[in-house]
Amino acid sequence: MGSEHTAFRADCEKLPKRAVFRSTLVRLTAVATLWSLSALAPPLWSEYRIQTVDPPAELEIDWRFRTGDSLAWAHPDHEDQAWDEINVPGSFGKQGYTGYSGIAWYRLTLRSPPDLTNSIRSGDAPIALQMGSVESAYEVYAGGRLIGKVGEVAPEPQPRWDEHALHTVPGSALDDSGRLVIALRVWKSPHALAREGGPHSEVPILGDPSVLARTQLLNQLPALVLFITLALIAIQHLLLYGLRPQLAEYMWFALFCLVTAVYVLLSSQWKTLLGTDFVLLENAEYFCLFLLPAVGIEIFCRFFEYRRASWVKASQVVFVLWAFVVGLTQSLRPNLLSASAFYAAGSLVIAGMTGTLIVKSRQGDARARRLLLAFLLLLVAAANDAALERELISSVPLLGFALGVVVALLTIELASRFRKIHVELDSLNRELEQRVRKQTEQLNLRTSELVEKNEELERNEAQLKEVSVVDSLTGLRNRRFFRENIRTDVAQTNRLHHPPGGPVPAVAGNDLIFLLIDVDHFKQVNDSFGHRGGDEILVQFAELLRNTSRDSDVLIRWGGEEFLVVNRFSKRSRAHEAAQRILSAVSNHSFTLPEEPDLRLTCSIGYACLPFLESLPTAFGADEVIDLADRALYLAKREGRNRAVGVMANEQARSELLYERIRDDLVAAAQRGDVILGRTNDRPPMREAARASASQLAADRPGDEARHD
Fold first, then answer.
1. Is the bond preceding residue 499 a cis peptide, omega within 30 degrees?
2. Spatial separation of the C-alpha atoms in residues 678 and 694, rounded to whole Å
3. DSSP labels for 149-174?
4. Is 267 helix (H, G, I), strand (E, B) or coil?
5. N- or C-end of the chain: fewer Cβ atoms within 10 A?
6. What's the pLDDT tens digit per position in 350-370?
């Protein structure tokens, strides 16, 4: 470059001054022209090139950004050159938009080489976009199409900022040239901090969905392991406290471990599996966090046998009240406003404990020396999480793992103390052996009391067993009861039909009739009146079944809106009559809900008898017969609902592979003569109000033909 410049100057010296001036002018004009063309042309850095999706591509680059809202901004061809540039990840409140709340948009244009583009568009190389925490909710678009969201942006925004989500990008989102436009529609709550907003912590990643999902799972495994470990430690110390109730520190430590375990779980991505009520989960997380200092002070004082001053007790009360105010509120605003103040107060508490440990260490306390390093780590973790909460640093939360270290050391210390106490108690027990011998009468009395307690425990266990086989909603028996008791009825029925010792004619009236019942269009009931209304309908339906059944019948809630009625030791010829009785009772019944018009419902029934083949009572088991009743129920649904279909065996049919032939196609089996199908339906006239209720349900879910609807 230097030699070219020298040659240029030498050429200029040989030319006249006017020629030099013209040459310089030409060069300046060319430079200006090129600069103008470059300004008019799209800049090269407006697109980000990806060469591969495995390993995934991290999109930690400048995105286009604009406040306001228009769904047209998601379109790939929308002109965004005039938009601002903003770094992702990073809150837009810290990048020139302090205090802004509402909706803002991010856009990023990606381009892939032809071979990768073809693979993605053909589905050979599936891709997904992994998003981290976004303040406060967002929708993501690819190629102008909505591919996912977290929380609600509009028209009724709902925050959900902690969830890491994986959004599948369809191959059609890429155009023929390999261009992919990703648009992010972000809503920031007015209650959020002024310097927050948008994707602020984790880098967006584009890559193979399986690789991203596996990486995300591995990243969350430590939190799950820590949660399980803390929960087991809590259970262990509750057991130790049960053995030695006078050791109250074990009970407090178990509570500390339990609260810490819940906090670790709720501060991780595992909380997304617990439910969709984000406000409840978030407030529960902050409740545990705000409760930790109060419980920690209690353990610290009891562990080192400190006598708490009045101001220490007052601080514990403040933290407890603080936790309950945050945890019981129906809004996120209290925890958002008080988080920074809590971290400051909590850091002061940890600093005070650390200072005390330093003093005790200098005084030669070995326990304090062993705990000092863990509390220093806890202090650093609290400062880290406080800075992370205010987005002053880019890091990962450390408080949960620091608490885990403290819990581990305290567990070792308390285990050592328990062992020491246990040894001392053993020594005392040996000294008191002679006294124990003299107190035989008292021991016998105690033994008598223990016998009474054991009897009470057995009664309680019997009650618990009874509860375990009863459906908590309807009060009917559940599947567990059915599985535990059906074998006895089946064995007795088989003996009556085929007694041991010789061929004896089957005894009439000793069949088991299985009637599988499903409420018609129940999904529409849930959609129209909510799950609480649906539960009320199920309770009334169960009561209706009780009123239409014999005392000897077994009523089972089979699952969801399905029920099983077992007519015990009845005649199979009465199966049709039993089904018709239930159909009529249901269709003629008015179901009621608070502040709602009376509702008329129907049901569909499939039934079959055991033994299925009277000539071979053991050829079909209870599971096979119930499966046949289930297929008959499906046929009743398919034929229009509000009817019953029964499956009866043709005794002339061959038993070899009979069940397989029926199972493959019930209708075809009936046409072949393997089985006989009995049909009945009940369609009574309905009042105008009932007809309006059914019409409204049908309008809510038009064309819904799902089997269990």
1. no
2. 27
3. EESB-SSS-B---S--EEEEEPGGGS
4. coil
5. N
6. 888 888 888 888 888 887 888
pTM over 0.85? The answer is no
CA angle 120–125–126, rounded 5-degree value: 85
Which DSSP symbol is given to 657? T
CA distance 347 to 521: 57
pLDDT of 209 over the 70 cut: yes
Residue type, 464: L
For 521, other C-beta atoms within 10 Å of its C-beta total 21
Angle at 330 between CA 325 and CA 331, to 5 degrees: 90
Give tens-digit pLDDT for 222-274: 889 988 988 998 898 888 888 878 888 888 888 988 988 998 888 888 888 87
Residue length of the chain: 709
Give residue for tokens 């925890």.
335
What residues contact residue 119 under an 8 Å CB cut-off, 6+ apart? 125
Distances 387 to 350, 381, 391, 400, 497 between C-alpha atoms, Å: 16, 10, 6, 15, 78
Spatial contact of 410 and 371, defined as CB atoms under 8 Å apart: yes
Nearest Cα to 612, choosing from 490, 471, 475? 490
Which of helix, strand or coil describes residue 6?
A: helix
The whole-angstrom separation of Cα 265 and Cα 282 is 11
Question: What does the block give as tokens for 2?
Answer: 């230097």
Please write down the long-range contacts of 697-702, taking CB distance under 8 Å and 24 or more positions apart: 697/521, 697/524, 697/525, 697/528, 698/521, 698/524, 700/524, 700/527, 700/528, 701/521, 701/523, 701/524, 701/527
643-649 vs 603-610, strand pairing mode: parallel
